[in-house]
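Q: Can I see a sequence and its folded structure?
A: Here is a first one.
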Amino acid sequence: MAAQKANGDDLPFELVEEIIENIRDDMASLRVSSRVSKAWRTASLRHLFSVADFSLEKDFIRWRDIGASMAHVPFYVQKVNFEPGGRFREKRIQDLKAKYPGENNKTDIMLEFLLQEHEHQAPPPNVRLPLMPRATKFLWSNMMTDPIRWTSQTKRFLSTFPAVTELEFQGMFPSTVEAKQFLSMFKHIQSFTTTSIDILSVSANAGAFTGDMTDLRVLSLQDCRMSADWLVDEVFEKSRPTRLQHISYEFDMPFSPKTFIRLLDMAADSLEDMSLQPPSPDDTGQSSHLSRKENSHPFGHSSLP
């Protein structure tokens, strides 16, 4: 009797999905599994394309072409990273370490790294991306580039991701006007995290916030380079975060005391805990954690209700 050739489709699809789930973080294995059969390809693609990385200009062209040839693939995207030059950051640093060997050359390494030109900064014009309606996580990082001006291309790029609930921003805005334009593009934010945020020009009451912060649950501000009072005054006052449950910050307090009290008042009915990590004298980085279960308040008032 002739032996029958094994076929990947002989396995139940549920089992195939479980196998693929166990290798979801191994891109090389996922590429191999996507070639086994149609069922394996279907299960593999949703992990192969779960993250859309826009570090280079050619990434925009690649995703435009993917959308044109495989219209179902953009639906697999769950997380988006916009980080000009970020993909090759580690390789560039390693190359510079080889160029400047020794512990005493760290300054030379960082200076040359910062002065290197990157392939692109802003989203390129005339590249229309497919809609990615299931992307819920979005990272915008321009820490390696100059602040990116708000343009029609920027607006069109951000409109590609209408379902974002977890937003992370790293770097610098040119102005508070453009910061509000950026935040206005996200209508379903539940978590907002910033790292080393800075703004070159603060223009009080210029430009209106038109987004929605009413579903915000988590606010995390790490290493703010400037006061974040504008976030309360010009964003949260327009759309109050009445479901805010968690506030955290690291290093310097990002708000003035008066503004911070206003933020606490806005979230009085929902706030559950705060994690505060100011710089300590001995540089140990110890943090304070305040919750409804603890009879404490950052300004010595009563405990959280």
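Q: Show me another, different protein.
A: A second, unrelated one:
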Amino acid sequence: MRAKYDPNQPRVPAGNPDGGQWTDGGGGYGASTGDDRRVLSDANPEEWIPGAQYAQNGPQNRNLQIDLLEEEKRGEHVIKEHVRKSEAYLKARVEREAFAIVERGDNFRGLSVGSFQSLESANKLVNSTLAENQHVIDRVVRGLDWIGIARAQFSSVTGQEAFLQRFHSQPYIRDTYAVTVIIIRDQSVPKGFRV
């Protein structure tokens, strides 16, 4: 007996080598025939790139620990610009960066520049922030974004910051309970990004 056309019969998803072909819709349960080439993925369909190999880029970053001393050796500035900085330094830096924003012609909407109390707290808070923002890391490592911004709020003080509300106002120092970490895609390092 010949099978009839059924418009409701499921098809193999697009992107699979067998994409568009009819399937029994078995859903992966039961015995395997050994020829099941369906792809199981947790990749967001909106961010899917043909030919990308997502499985190789994810799990190795799940328990990643950043060492800011190692980042500094590669020319990064986290320690130099954000650890144990004086109030005078933070105020001068926030004014300098605000001036640069206005000089570029960008709209100034307030700015803060912060400092961690110690290298130890900086390492812990940066790692904690990145752990809460795995989706940001994944997008950068996969090449969906070149720069990622990871943010986290904490219930205790993370450091202090100079805040400049308006361009012509005076900056003031306040405690901060948040951390922002900017990561940049870098395929020359094993983790796929730098801080």
